[in-house]
Amino acid sequence: MIEKVILKEEEKKDFYENENLTREAFWNVYKPGCDEHFILKLLRDRQSYIKELSLLAFLENKMVGSIVYSKMFKEGKMLNEIICFGPISVLPELQKKGVGSLLINETMKKAANLGYKAVLITGNKNYYKRFGFKPAFDYDIHLEGNKIEDKAEYFMAKELEEGYLSKYPGIYQFDKIFFEFPKDELEEYDKKFPKKIKREKRDTDLP
Protein backbone atom coordinates (compact mmCIF):
# COMPACT_ATOMS: atom_id res chain seq x y z
CA MET A 1 0.00 0.00 0.00
CA ILE A 2 2.64 2.52 1.04
CA GLU A 3 4.39 2.32 -2.34
CA LYS A 4 1.21 3.76 -3.89
CA VAL A 5 1.25 6.86 -1.68
CA ILE A 6 2.16 10.07 -3.51
CA LEU A 7 3.48 13.17 -1.71
CA LYS A 8 2.96 16.72 -2.91
CA GLU A 9 3.20 20.26 -1.58
CA GLU A 10 0.00 21.74 -0.19
CA GLU A 11 -1.80 24.26 -2.39
CA LYS A 12 -4.50 26.75 -1.45
CA LYS A 13 -7.16 24.48 -2.93
CA ASP A 14 -6.11 21.79 -0.41
CA PHE A 15 -6.56 23.94 2.70
CA TYR A 16 -10.07 22.87 3.74
CA GLU A 17 -9.49 19.17 3.01
CA ASN A 18 -6.24 19.22 4.96
CA GLU A 19 -7.88 20.93 7.93
CA ASN A 20 -10.68 18.35 7.88
CA LEU A 21 -8.11 15.53 7.64
CA THR A 22 -6.26 16.97 10.65
CA ARG A 23 -9.54 17.21 12.55
CA GLU A 24 -10.32 13.56 11.78
CA ALA A 25 -6.85 12.48 12.91
CA PHE A 26 -6.93 14.29 16.27
CA TRP A 27 -10.62 14.29 17.21
CA ASN A 28 -11.11 13.11 20.82
CA VAL A 29 -7.52 11.81 21.03
CA TYR A 30 -5.92 14.16 23.56
CA LYS A 31 -9.02 16.02 24.74
CA PRO A 32 -12.72 16.30 23.87
CA GLY A 33 -12.75 17.44 20.25
CA CYS A 34 -9.45 18.94 19.08
CA ASP A 35 -7.81 22.21 18.07
CA GLU A 36 -4.98 21.02 15.79
CA HIS A 37 -6.96 21.80 12.62
CA PHE A 38 -7.50 25.39 13.78
CA ILE A 39 -3.81 25.76 14.67
CA LEU A 40 -2.97 24.50 11.16
CA LYS A 41 -5.17 27.20 9.63
CA LEU A 42 -3.58 29.95 11.73
CA LEU A 43 -0.03 28.66 11.30
CA ARG A 44 -0.11 29.22 7.54
CA ASP A 45 -0.22 32.98 8.15
CA ARG A 46 2.72 33.00 10.56
CA GLN A 47 6.19 34.14 9.56
CA SER A 48 7.58 30.88 10.95
CA TYR A 49 5.54 28.69 8.56
CA ILE A 50 7.60 26.76 5.99
CA LYS A 51 5.46 26.24 2.91
CA GLU A 52 8.04 24.10 1.07
CA LEU A 53 7.93 21.46 3.81
CA SER A 54 4.16 21.28 4.20
CA LEU A 55 3.43 18.08 2.33
CA LEU A 56 0.30 16.04 1.71
CA ALA A 57 0.03 12.28 1.21
CA PHE A 58 -2.42 10.94 -1.37
CA LEU A 59 -3.53 7.35 -1.90
CA GLU A 60 -5.54 6.74 -5.07
CA ASN A 61 -6.25 10.50 -5.30
CA LYS A 62 -7.55 10.66 -1.72
CA MET A 63 -5.75 12.82 0.84
CA VAL A 64 -4.71 10.51 3.66
CA GLY A 65 -1.96 12.37 5.52
CA SER A 66 -0.18 15.68 6.00
CA ILE A 67 2.77 17.23 7.80
CA VAL A 68 3.48 20.88 8.62
CA TYR A 69 6.78 22.56 9.50
CA SER A 70 7.63 25.86 11.16
CA LYS A 71 10.76 27.57 12.48
CA MET A 72 11.84 27.41 16.10
CA PHE A 73 12.58 30.38 18.36
CA LYS A 74 15.31 31.11 20.88
CA GLU A 75 15.16 34.06 23.29
CA GLY A 76 12.13 35.26 21.34
CA LYS A 77 14.05 35.40 18.03
CA MET A 78 12.94 33.26 15.11
CA LEU A 79 15.65 30.90 13.87
CA ASN A 80 16.39 30.17 10.23
CA GLU A 81 18.15 26.83 10.58
CA ILE A 82 16.34 24.98 13.41
CA ILE A 83 12.80 23.87 12.68
CA CYS A 84 9.99 21.66 13.98
CA PHE A 85 7.11 19.68 12.54
CA GLY A 86 3.53 19.35 13.66
CA PRO A 87 0.75 18.75 13.43
CA ILE A 88 1.37 15.54 11.51
CA SER A 89 -1.92 13.89 10.58
CA VAL A 90 -3.00 10.54 9.13
CA LEU A 91 -6.57 9.36 8.66
CA PRO A 92 -7.46 7.04 11.58
CA GLU A 93 -8.08 4.03 9.33
CA LEU A 94 -4.59 4.33 7.81
CA GLN A 95 -2.58 4.99 10.95
CA LYS A 96 0.28 2.59 11.75
CA LYS A 97 0.59 1.66 8.08
CA GLY A 98 3.64 3.75 7.20
CA VAL A 99 2.06 6.98 5.96
CA GLY A 100 3.37 9.05 8.85
CA SER A 101 6.84 7.53 8.56
CA LEU A 102 6.93 8.33 4.85
CA LEU A 103 5.97 11.95 5.50
CA ILE A 104 8.60 12.35 8.22
CA ASN A 105 11.45 10.68 6.34
CA GLU A 106 10.83 12.46 3.05
CA THR A 107 10.35 15.91 4.55
CA MET A 108 13.49 15.62 6.69
CA LYS A 109 15.48 14.73 3.56
CA LYS A 110 13.98 17.76 1.84
CA ALA A 111 14.70 19.95 4.87
CA ALA A 112 18.37 18.94 4.80
CA ASN A 113 18.54 19.70 1.07
CA LEU A 114 17.04 23.14 1.73
CA GLY A 115 19.80 23.90 4.22
CA TYR A 116 18.04 23.40 7.54
CA LYS A 117 20.37 22.06 10.23
CA ALA A 118 18.19 20.45 12.92
CA VAL A 119 14.64 19.49 13.87
CA LEU A 120 13.11 19.78 17.36
CA ILE A 121 9.81 18.12 18.28
CA THR A 122 7.69 16.94 21.17
CA GLY A 123 6.22 13.44 21.16
CA ASN A 124 6.66 9.82 22.11
CA LYS A 125 10.40 9.08 22.41
CA ASN A 126 9.92 5.39 21.63
CA TYR A 127 8.24 6.26 18.33
CA TYR A 128 10.52 9.06 17.18
CA LYS A 129 13.82 7.38 18.00
CA ARG A 130 13.33 5.26 14.87
CA PHE A 131 13.83 8.48 12.86
CA GLY A 132 17.04 9.34 14.67
CA PHE A 133 15.62 11.66 17.29
CA LYS A 134 17.34 11.87 20.68
CA PRO A 135 16.33 13.63 23.90
CA ALA A 136 17.11 17.32 23.39
CA PHE A 137 18.79 17.49 26.81
CA ASP A 138 21.60 15.39 25.31
CA TYR A 139 22.55 18.62 23.48
CA ASP A 140 21.86 20.83 26.54
CA ILE A 141 18.74 22.05 24.75
CA HIS A 142 15.56 22.66 26.74
CA LEU A 143 11.99 23.72 26.08
CA GLU A 144 10.74 26.98 27.53
CA GLY A 145 8.57 26.34 30.57
CA ASN A 146 10.45 23.23 31.64
CA LYS A 147 12.95 23.18 34.49
CA ILE A 148 16.53 22.75 33.27
CA GLU A 149 17.00 19.78 35.61
CA ASP A 150 13.88 18.11 34.18
CA LYS A 151 15.09 15.85 31.37
CA ALA A 152 11.68 16.07 29.62
CA GLU A 153 12.39 13.16 27.30
CA TYR A 154 9.33 14.01 25.17
CA PHE A 155 11.28 17.05 23.84
CA MET A 156 13.56 15.60 21.17
CA ALA A 157 16.10 16.69 18.59
CA LYS A 158 17.57 15.41 15.35
CA GLU A 159 20.57 16.93 13.65
CA LEU A 160 20.41 17.28 9.88
CA GLU A 161 24.02 18.47 9.98
CA GLU A 162 26.16 16.40 12.33
CA GLY A 163 27.55 18.36 15.26
CA TYR A 164 25.37 21.42 14.67
CA LEU A 165 23.30 21.43 17.87
CA SER A 166 26.28 21.10 20.21
CA LYS A 167 27.14 24.68 19.24
CA TYR A 168 23.74 26.07 20.18
CA PRO A 169 22.64 24.97 23.68
CA GLY A 170 19.91 26.88 25.46
CA ILE A 171 16.17 27.29 25.87
CA TYR A 172 13.99 27.08 22.76
CA GLN A 173 10.39 27.94 21.98
CA PHE A 174 7.79 26.88 19.44
CA ASP A 175 5.74 29.54 17.66
CA LYS A 176 3.32 31.05 20.18
CA ILE A 177 0.36 30.24 17.94
CA PHE A 178 0.49 26.64 19.21
CA PHE A 179 -0.48 27.86 22.69
CA GLU A 180 -2.01 31.33 22.38
CA PHE A 181 -4.55 30.96 19.59
CA PRO A 182 -8.01 32.56 20.10
CA LYS A 183 -9.91 29.67 21.69
CA ASP A 184 -13.17 31.63 21.59
CA GLU A 185 -13.04 31.47 17.77
CA LEU A 186 -12.51 27.70 17.63
CA GLU A 187 -16.15 26.74 18.16
CA GLU A 188 -17.37 29.01 15.36
CA TYR A 189 -14.62 27.82 13.03
CA ASP A 190 -15.50 24.19 13.78
CA LYS A 191 -18.97 24.70 12.29
CA LYS A 192 -17.36 24.63 8.83
CA PHE A 193 -16.83 20.88 9.18
CA PRO A 194 -19.08 17.80 9.47
CA LYS A 195 -20.69 17.56 12.90
CA LYS A 196 -18.84 15.33 15.37
CA ILE A 197 -19.55 14.45 18.99
CA LYS A 198 -17.03 15.35 21.69
CA ARG A 199 -16.30 12.66 24.27
CA GLU A 200 -16.38 13.26 28.03
CA LYS A 201 -13.42 15.01 29.63
CA ARG A 202 -10.80 12.83 31.36
CA ASP A 203 -8.29 13.63 34.08
CA THR A 204 -5.45 12.69 31.69
CA ASP A 205 -6.53 15.15 28.95
CA LEU A 206 -4.23 17.88 27.73
CA PRO A 207 -5.32 21.44 28.60
Can you tell me about this structure?
The protein is an alpha+beta fold. The chain has a single domain, classed as 3-Layer(aba) Sandwich (Aminopeptidase). Helix content is 23%, strand content 27%. The protein contains five helices and nine strands; from the N terminus they run βααβββαβαββββα. Strands 1, 2, 3, 4, 5, 6, 7, 8 and 9 form a nine-stranded mixed sheet that branches.
Layout of SSEs?
Blueprint (H helix, E strand, L loop, with lengths): L4 E5 L5 H12 L9 H8 L11 E5 L2 E13 L2 E14 L8 H15 L4 E5 L2 H4 L5 E2 L5 E3 L11 E5 L10 E4 L9 H8 L17
Parallel strand pairs: 4-5, 7-9
Antiparallel strand pairs: 1-2, 2-3, 3-4, 3-9, 5-8, 6-8
Helix pairs in contact: 1-2
Give a concise summary.
The protein has a single domain (2-180), classed as 3-Layer(aba) Sandwich (Aminopeptidase).
User: How far is the N terminus from the C terminus?
Assistant: 36 Å
H/I helix tally: 5
Structural class: alpha+beta
What count of structural domains?
1
- The first-level CATH class name: Alpha Beta
CATH architecture: 3-Layer(aba) Sandwich
Shape: globular
Order of helices and strands: EHHEEEHEHEEEEH
Helical content (DSSP H or I, runs of 4+): 10-25%
Strand segment count: 9
- At the fold tier of CATH, the topology name is Aminopeptidase
- CATH superfamily membership: Gcn5-related N-acetyltransferase (GNAT)
Indicate the radius of gyration in whole angstroms: 17 Å
Q: Which band does the percent of strand residues land in?
A: 25-35%
Largest sheet: 9 strands, mixed
Low-confidence stretches: none
Mean pLDDT: 95
